[in-house]
Every structure is written in C-alpha cells, then in structure tokens.
Amino acid sequence: MDFPQNMSMEEAFALAEAEAKLKQALTESKARFENAVIPNRLNEDWRFGRPHKHAVALAELLQSDTPSQGEATVQHAGEAAVPVTAEDDDLRQTEMLMPTIGSDALLGMHLKRFGDGYALYIEEDTKEPILLTYKTDTLYTPSTFIMVAPGVKAHVIEQHYGCEKGTIFATRNIQVAEGAELKVELQPYGCARCMSITNIQNMGGKVVHYTHHFACDWAREETVAEIYTPGADNQLFSANKLDLDQVLDQHTRQIHHVGGATSNLLYKNVVDDNATGIFAGNIYVAPGAHNTDAYQSNRNMLLSEKATIHSLPGLEILADKVRCSHGSASAPMDEEQLFYLLSRGIPRDEALALVSHGFLQDVVDKFERS
Amino acid sequence: MDETPFQIDTRGEFSFPENHKFDAGFGLTEATIDYICDAKGEPDWVRQFRKDALKKFNEMPMPTHWAPEGINDLDFDKIRYYLSHGTMPYKDWEEVPDDVKRTFERLGVPEQERAFLAGVDAQYDSETAYNNMREELSKQGVIFVNSTEGLKEYEHIFRPWFGKVIPVTDNKFSALNHAAFSGCSFIYVPTGVKVAQPLQAYFRINSESMGQFERTLIIADEGAELMYMEGCTAPKYDSATLHSGVVELVALKGAKIQYVTVQNWATNVYNLVIQRGLAMEDAEIRWIDCNLGSGLTMKYPAVVLQGRRARGEVVSISLAHSGQLQDTGARMIHAAPETTSNIVAKSISIGEGRASYRGEVNVLKGMKGCKNNTECDALLINANSRTDTYPAISVHGNASAVQHEASVSQVDEEMLFYMQQRGLTRAQAMSLAVNGFINDLVKEFPMEYSVELRRLIDLEMEDSIG
User: Fold this and answer.
1) Residue A258's domain spans which residues?
2) pLDDT one-digit tens code per residue, A326-356
3) What residues of chain A lie within 8 A of the CB of B390, using their CB?
4) How far apart are CA A21 and CA A70, in angstroms?
5) φ and ψ at A333, to 5 degrees?
6) Looking at CA atoms only, how far is residue B408 from chain A in angstroms?
7) Hey, where are the domains in chain B?
8) ipTM of the prediction
9) Prediction pTM value
C-alpha cells in the first residue's frame, strides 16, 4: 500500500486498519450475495409481501436478457453531479456494503447490472432543489449516491418514471457529514414495478427523507437509516394514496449505533379499492446507545371494503436510557369530518377526497417544516 | 450477596433422586405411545389419535424460522415423554435448595402447599376443603376431571371439541402435544352455571399434577361463567426440560372464561405453550398471563372471535432475568363482525434478560365494526437489558378500527431520587417503581396471586440492584 509522504505513523496505521476492515467487509459481503436466496415465504422481511409473486417476478426480469435501459437526467446540480459508470469500483464497493431488508439476492442482481445513475457530491448549499430523474419503459437499474459535505444544506428530489409498463429497481446511498442538512424526496410515478433500496448513513447531520408513490402497480421500498454520530437526526416521512390493485410494501429500519441521537418516522397511507399497504418498521438501539430518542408512527385510512393493511411496527432495544415508542393505527375515515363537509353541500366524492387529502397533507407539512 | 433469597441463575441446577412408578423412557416412538396408553388405560380411538399425531410431528418442520435460536438446542430424543409417580412423595424436603425454601417463606406460602410446590408432596393436601368444593361443583353439574377420565368417561362432551380449537397440524409442538399429552384438566360447565370460586389446577386429587405435555380443555356452555387458575408464583421445580402444553377454551354463546396462568419454572426449562380460545356469540375470553420463570418461553395466548359481539382480552406480565428470554404476546383473530379485543402487555427486563412481545391482530375480510386496542410497555432495569416488540396487524376493509401503541422506558432517576430522599433504599425504591409499573395489571389477578406477585417482584429487585 502506498501512503502519502507527509502522513504520520498513527494516521498510516489508522488508514491501514480501515483498508483491512473494508477488505474483510467486502469478502463477507461477497459471501452474503453468494448465499442469498430469492425471497420466499420463509423470509420474515417479506411477510405479507407475497414474495412468490413479486420477488420472483422481479428476480426473473433481472436475470433475463432484458438490458437495463433508461434515461437519467439531472438539473440544478452544477458540478456536483457525476454519472455512475460500471468502472467506478469505489461506488460499486459502496453498493456492495449496503444493507437490505431481506433482499440481498436482489441487490446482488442489481450489482451485476451496476453502471447507471448519478453520484452527487454536494459541497455547496443548493439554491434550487437538485432534480434527478430516471425514466424507462422497460427495465432500468440506476444507483444514486448522495454525499453531503460538512455544514452544507442541500435539497434533492429523485423521480422515477415507469411509463406504465416500466420497471425501475434503484439503490440509493445517502451519506451526510457533521452539521450538514439534507432534504431528500423519492417520487416514483407510474411504474409497473418499482423497488428501491435506500441506505442513509448519518454522521452527525440531519436527514429529512420523504417518499411519495403515485400510480405504481407494485412498489417495494427498503429504507435503512443508520446513525453513527451523536447529535445526528433522521426524519423519515411517507404519504401515499393507493387504489385499484396497487401494492405498496414499505420496510424501514431506524438503526442507532451510538447514543445521543434522534430518529423519527411518520408513514401514512390511504388505501382504497382493492389495494394493499404493508408497513414493516423496526427501531434498533445498539447496546450502549444511551440517550436515544426514537419514534415510529404508522397511520392508515381504509376507504373500501376490499382494502387491506398490514402493519408491523417493531422495536429492538438493547440499551436502557432511551425514549422509544411506536404506534400504529388503522381505521376508516372519520364520519364526523365527512358529515361536516356533506352538510355544507360538498358532494360525497369531493368530501372523501378532501378528507383523505388532508390526512396525507399533514405529512407533507411536517416534511416541509423540518 | 449472602442474603439473596432468590437467585434464578442457579435454580435449574438442582436434581432430585427420582422414583417414578411409570416411566416411558427417552424419545418418542409408537412404543412410547402404547406405553402411555396402557399406563393410563385409554380407549383405542385416543391411541390411534396419538399415533396419527406422532406421524404429523415427525413430518413437520420446526415451525419457527423467526424463533429464538435457543429453540434449535432442543433434542427430542433426549426427552422423557411420560413420567408418573403415583401418589407417593417422591422427593425429600431436605433436598429442596435453601434459597427456594426461603422464597417460600418470604412469599408466605402455607406449609403444606410448599411441600407440594417443591415436588416433595405429590398432592396438595387439603382434602376436606377440596371435597366440599367438589361436591358443590358436581351438584351444579360441573365436570372437572383429568384428560384420561375426560376422554373415557365423558367422551360425548369432550371429544367433539378435543383438538378442534388447536388442530394437530397447527404446528410441530401442537402435534407433539397431541401425541404425548397427559395431565391437567378437562372442564365442562353446563348452561347458565356460574362457578363462584376459581378452579385451580393443583386442587385436583389423584391425578398427575402439571405434566410436561399438559392438556387442558375447558368448555363453558351457553351463559356459563368460570375462572381457572394454573401454576403459582413460587418457583416450580421439575427435572423435565421441555414443557409443551396445549390449552383449548371454548366459550359458547354468552359464556365467560377467565384463564389465569402464573409460570415460574426453573431456567433450564423450555416453556412452549399453545393457548387458544374460541369465543362464540356474545362470549368473552380473558387470558391473564404472567411469565416469571423458564429459560425460554414462547407463548402467545390467542382468541378466535368466532361469533358476533364476542370479546377477547389478554393481560400479560413478563419478567426476564439474566439468561432468560420471555417471548410472549397475544393473538386476536376477528372472524365475526362487531367483535372487540384488548391486549395489554407489560414486560420488565433485568440484567441481561430479554423480553419480547410478539403479537398478531387480524381483522378478516368482510368483518364490520371490529375493534382492537393493543398496548405494550417495556421497562428496562439495567444497561444491558433488552426488549423487543414485533406486532403484526392486518386489517381488511374499511369498517374496523385497530390501534397499537408501545413504549420503552427505564425507571425515572428523579423518581428513585425522590424515594431515596425519603429514606427508602435504592432496591426498595426500585421495587416500588416496578410494582407501580405493573400495578394496574396485578389488580387483574386473584387476591392471593397479586400479593405473591408483589412480594416476588420485591425479591427480584433486591437481587438485581446491588
């Protein structure tokens, strides 16, 4: 290994140690992909997610000859945006080390198609939100890397357009340095299948993450938000309206490796027609991560007789000085609110839309305020 | 800590010389089943039933890909499936470990009861009291017998429901229990009869006491009411390491059943119990569950709400000390409209103990007006205690409301400071705080249980705060 000339002995040791750790992690992660099986009914992280249907279909598509084809554009990024190429081994390694929630096998397939997407190295405050767009009508497997430098305030909007029959399977790697603030939105539109695996690594900054799915037949979202430094703050939001036969399968992990940090989650779904919403969240507080504040809340509104909600809010707490709570509630629309609108002459359809819109707007407001 | 009256960590390490009248040996085969049937003098259909279950047991995989790893250490061939010691005392009081005796004293368990609990006496000697009670019960038409007698003498009553609430193929441990069950109670309460005093498992005479594969079936006919209690707060010793019980409750129209369990096995015991109740129209089933002992407990009392306006409730307290995993929870299946259910679970983790809540609430398709409320609270006492919550809530349709809340906290330092200022020791302050935490649930237990529970928590706290 070559060390820079002016490096002290300690720094050289630390660097060598870090390199050794990385090497080991990469070897382990290789084994992880080799041993991984396509999610099946025994995979607890796919509970209620009907893996025999959805995971298998996605895996078949990824393993087929269908090329990854799509259009990636970025606006308002200045010099921060760099296209991802198949040759970029550093970024590939970053993706290899990403945690998933029960989908290692699928991430392994994504890695085989690695080489699309954008890396954003944000070193200055963004004046306008950076707009990142992926579009396809077949299959597209982009990777997004967002790195925010210390003290920088940034806003990124990532949109996935599936053009009704397209499949987008994206990985998203977000690293936020000390004192940085990142607002990041994920908005998939009209995909036949849409899956995203997101890893947020918070080193002492603030991340506000918001997802909004619109008209996707099947969507799965895996978000692992990790905190590595005291003082870090992760805020996860999601608001979705599901109808027809749509399935939205959302999985989150709020991981506190160290104490003295905060994470918060609010996911709301309005489920209509024959649609299904699945939320499986977990807060993990590592041993010794004292003075952690972690909250998780899942609220669902059911609008039709055939709508289905599965909610699995979980906690794993291994330290005692913590404040953690979770809540989950699923209920029909409040008749009183509806009655109020009806009595003012608003037609039932519009009243329904208003109340459900208001239910979700609450999340958007919270996202915008934080 | 010389004065320690109660140390869970060492509880499992004692062994007693055993003198069993019947012993089916190790492992479970058809021959074992024949042995059990012969020893108990069971009818042929039961023999066949057990054998069919054995086949299922051998075919089925270990059910639980999510289960704690400890469960894989179970070796089914190293377990004795049937032991019976008749009515003779089979242990010597002298051999009961001192700390257990001290616990009995501190808990205020009556002398005769102590002997029974420590396994010295095969039965709790209160014949007069019991006989009076039995007479009264049989006058009312209540049938209160053991499993063998139940299936032999009252086949027409018990057979139609036997294995119906929890079928053989429910999971591997259910199949195991169906193959090897012995002991515990079969109860039938006739229409409209309200049993005034709670029935207790260890009041019954001339039968096996709590067995390894206990089997309970309680049928409350229309409008009947009863409360059943199982176990006790004092530590319960047993050389057997696997306890896989099946408890079936059937509450017919308008009936009410309350089932109270207090479990305090030694830490070398696996406690895997399947409890499920079937609540018909307007019926109510309540599980009141307290888990203090055992190394690994997996127990999720369930209520299938099968009739309109049926009601289910689970009240659960669990306490996990170092070396213990209390994986407890509740299941509520809303299979009829306008059914309601309530789950309140509180857990306390001490030292390196781990307490988990695992629950399922399912409002099936087409059900209207169902309501569920779930609350789970966890208290962590030491820095390396652990607690988990894994609920699964499924709601179909827009006519039911379900809510779940859980919180995790530790004992408030300020609260302890306040109490210590007023002259309490830290341990006393801690146990007061913990007692306060579970206070509203302890009230649900019958009087003598709740008194014992409080004392037991005092003892636990004295140990853990040093």
Assistant:
1) 30-334
2) 999 999 988 888 999 999 999 998 999 999 9
3) 312, 314
4) 36
5) -65, 145
6) 5
7) 413-466
8) 0.84
9) 0.85
